Amino acid sequence: MVYTHRHTALPQMLLFVHIFQFLFYIIVGRTLPIPVYCRVCGDKSFGKHYGVYCCDGCSCFFKRSVRRRIVYTCIAGTGQCIVDKARRNWCPFCRLQKCMKVNMNVSAVQDERGPRKSKLPKITESNTLVPKNWKTRSDYVYEIGAQIFLTSLRQCRFNESMAILPNAVQNEILNRTWHQSFVLMAAFWPTNLITLLSGSNSSIEHIVATLIASHRAMRLDSIEYNLVLTLVLCRPDLCSSAEFRNDLTAIGSNAKDALMKHAAFKSPTRYYGILACILSVTEDLAGYIKIIFFEPSVRNVPMNHLVSVIT
């Protein structure tokens, strides 16, 4: 009986040891012997990053977003996208919001040492602007332009104020404002589009690069971005239907007041700087944007047609 008791007690003792080790790892925050779920996307996590158990992917995303101070916008325009293992790369805005919701530590990123300086010879920027999987710079620019155009238009249609309008009225407004929403979105695009265009010999590309740079320099937060977008879209002069003009006037007026109050917390003159950026995107610049990003691929297809097919 003693022999049997000793051998049955041994597995129980090992189990207690494993439980103790697991609890120890959790308490001190060291790498776990077995994975747990990432609190952001549900993937496997083997340890804490910035105070929270998360996977390496979400950890790197959080660090990159905080260090570069990137201002994302929701792809769907709702701020309620699903963030899981399969869809975590779909909407960076909602992914970052999820990181904040689970209390990932921003100050830990800011206090962390940056990457060490490489002792290797510097590579000229012109060699690294276009990824290796793209044959020409032009093809790369066209692809970026198509992505920005698609994303910006969809975000406009999902805008809370635009969504209540009939599709025909939306198209009428977007036909006259697509270039403004394009520049606004381009200012927050992860690819360094400003450097890419500035390195060209084309004066048109330099003009558009300067315009995007002025928008990026404003460093709009998510609230300012959405209010600016509403101001761009909800103007009564853009709508031929008298039925919706009063609604657009009221919406635009409310957005203006909200933007003035929000911007005043940062600077007394910030609102006027933002307004100057909006007004700088004139209608003739729509032609420049089309030449740079679309004309070689869409040829003679009117932009109005492209706007109408993106829903």
- Coarse morphology: globular
> Helix- and strand-based class?
mainly alpha
With strands numbered from the N-terminus, the spatial order across the biggest sheet is 1-2
DSSP, total strands: 4
Rg result: 25 Å
Give the strand content.
under 5%
Q: Distance N terminus to C terminus?
A: 76 Å
Major β-sheet annotation: 2 strands, antiparallel
Low-pLDDT runs: 1-7, 19-30, 116-128
Mean pLDDT: 79
Helix content: 55-70%
Number of helices: 14
Order of helices and strands: HEEEEHHHHHHHHHHHHH
Explain briefly what this protein structure is.
By secondary structure, the chain is an all-alpha fold. The protein is built from 14 helices and 4 strands.
Question: What are the key terms here?
Answer:
311 residues, two-stranded antiparallel ribbon, 4 strands, 60% helix, 3% strand, globular, disordered N terminus
Give a verbal description of the structure:
This protein is mainly alpha-helical and 311 residues long. It is 60% helix and 3% strand. It has 14 helices and 4 strands. The protein has helices at residues 2-28, 56-68, 92-101, 106-111, 137-158, 167-186, 193-198, 203-217, 222-233, 242-264, 270-280, 284-293, 295-298, 303-309, and strands at 36-37, 44-45, 48-49, 52-53. The strands form 2 sheets. The protein has a two-stranded antiparallel ribbon with strand order 1-2. A hairpin with a 2-residue loop joins strand 3 (48-49) and strand 4. Helix 5 crosses helix 6. The chain is globular. It starts with a helix and ends with a helix.
